[in-house]
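Q: Hi! First time asking for a complex rather than a single chain. Here are the components, and I think there are two in total. Is that enough to go on?
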Amino acid sequence: LPSRFDWRDKKLVTGVKNQLDCGACWAFSIVGAIESRNAIIGHPLEDLSVQQVIDCSYLDKGCNGGSTDNALKWLNQSHTKLVKSSEYPFKATTGACHYFPPTEFGVSIKGYEAYDFSDYEEQMMNILINVGPIAVIVDAVSWQDYLGGIIQHHCSSGHSNHAVLVVGFDKTGDTPYWIVKNSWGTSWGIDGYVHVKMGQNICGIADFVAFPVM
Amino acid sequence: LFMDPVGERSPADRYGIFLKSLERHALLNSDARGSGDAYYGINQFSGLSPEEFANLYLQSYPSRSLDPYVPSKAALGGSA
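A: Yes, that's all I need. Here is the structure of the assembled complex.
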């Protein structure tokens, strides 16, 4: 495995979004994973509709919360095609599900996988490199005040409450870390990203790992 | 921006929350042990109490119906 890997270097990660006062991090995380995976398999990198997932994933609660694996389960069962974000823009509130004709452009998934890698972060690196960015659910209580650096304290496993997207890792320095894309805008953290120490399941980053099969 | 992020509270209440945020930053930063460690401070969430922050932004949970696959150690050894 390389000592450093970042899907952003290959221009296969869309820009950081801002979920505003909508508690739909789960949707941002899953849509981010699908955007990147779709581009990795050869399609143009497109911003896909988070609002479509918020409004239509009946297993979740829209802006009042949800889970990454429920969103993937819904996408897989319903064969829903995610349209472009410009077609179904983000409104920061839960609305009625809007349906599109089958001829409309859209990205669908063929399946999904979910893992507990809490003792196997090396495997998580493998998945990240071979599949693409991966959706994870972390304990983000201390992230309220985060400005930068590598999170290695004040963050527990077993209390998952926030979904984000792991897009890379860096093991070249003294403290190896995961590179994590958040959905709180670019003014938060490191241009919208956060670094989390690797190897000890900090923040429960490896507890609930999920990604689409496409 | 941080004085009235979600309304519902008086400016005095909101300022009190902001001061508590500063105390929290000092506590979090006191554990920094070396270069590269995370650092904490004022950002767009500093006017929110931890409860408000959690209610707005910490709304994801693992599905209770899912039993995530845990890879076996034997399989890992083989692939390594």
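A: The longest helix of chain A spans residues 25-40. Let me know if you'd like any chain examined more closely.
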